[in-house]
Amino acid sequence: MAGKKGKQTVRDMILSLGVIVAIAAGIWIFVPHDDSRDPVKRVDYRVELATAQRAAAYPVVAPEGLPKTWKATSVRYRAQDGDAWHLGYLDPQEKYVAVEQSTKDPAEFIGNVTQDARESGAATRINGRDWQPYKGDRYDALVLREGKSTTVVTGSAGLAQLKAFAEALRTPEHDAASATPGPRDA
To answer: What is the model's pTM?
Structure first.
């Protein structure tokens, strides 16, 4: 009797497993799934940008005029974390580029956001400011230190893309200054 009970248990387990596999296969076949869709969602960062620009102790920057092929993917502002502003993008080749700003200790902040990249060469002039290039194993960066804040453009994109992103960065002061009539506009 014990031998017959053992055979039934194995047979029942195999039948149960077959039923489970059939149900899982049916779900996979009949539930729509689109592998061609882009898993990275574009984010709208306007609210976070406005909040950071009002609250931060420095002029918070964001890019303007980038082509639609650049996609904003992440945003955050943390006042309690050294006035830390982050805005992440994917460039047209789907490489990561981000602007990071903070009032934290510059050496610690730069090391964290660039994943320990190191200064590499002479500064490069972008929009009238000297940005220091950094080279790293994972990320490269351009670093701008002004006053008590540090701005870092970093990512896996090449230096040309980092420069293009840095050139597109604007502050509210820049927008106000460009709207003020100058001698040629009067």
So the answer is: 0.73
